[in-house]
Amino acid sequence: MKNLIVTCSLLASASAHTIFTQLWVNGVAQGQTKGIRVPTYDGPVTDVTSNDVICNGGVNPLRTPLPKDIINVQAGDKLTAEWHHTLDSTQASDAQDPIDKGHLGPVIVYLAKVDDALTTKVTGLKWFKIYQDGMDSSKQWAVTRLYNNKGKVDFTLPSCIASGQYLLRAEIIALHGASNYPGAQLYMECAQLNISGGGSANPPTVSFPGAYKGTDPGIKFQLYYPTPTTYIVPGPTVFSC
Length: 241
Ligand SMILES: *[C@@H]1O[C@H](CO)[C@@H](O)[C@H](O)[C@H]1NC(C)=O
Ligand SMILES: [Cu+2]
Fold this sequence. Notes:
Structural class: mainly beta
Distance between the termini: 47 Å
Bound molecules: 2-acetamido-2-deoxy-beta-D-glucopyranose, copper (II) ion
Strand content: 25-35%
Helix content: under 10%
CATH topology: Coagulation Factor XIII, Chain A, domain 1
Mean pLDDT: 94
Largest sheet: 6 strands, mixed
């Protein structure tokens, strides 16, 4: 039974991936793919040591030219990341939009300060985590909440971080195949931000690749048996002001 469940889930997931396609700012949609470096294919990244884990690309080539838009936001704004199964799927036409319901796992958001949000060089950036949602005490997963909310996840920009340009890295980790490494499916895209009205905080940072290891309990994870009771979201703690 266990193997049957896992096999079906893997089969169902073969083409049921996801892409962060739109950013909302204080409840206002910024436009489909506006300011977001989206891939041409909605597949996962599974090698946490690869540069693809930074802002996707490589195994899922980025759409070119990269977007020229930089989304203006204020520190402290409420942002919403919206995911879809593909670049043009909707929940009305696609049961696997925004993501296959079986792709359970956490949702995580990071920021990295950059001199220019249009930079094509994403290696060597210093990232800090501003949001995470894993499995709650009722054993419901962040992905289930995202699915129920039509692909949308809300989070707040810290009010104390420095003004300037940033890349925002929004990520889903699907754990249905994560019992061995590589197996966890990482889905991430980077949005180009210009943050104003900030402060002078200097958050501790991590690198991508580097922030995750194949042995992390949040990357190598048994989703099915025994039924998990806790989940440790990978990466650093969430920065708060
Ligand atoms: C970023 O925002 C500041 C403050 O509103 C503005 O002066 C600047 O031109 C913006 N930069 C970009 C690249 O949009
Ligand atoms: Cu998938």
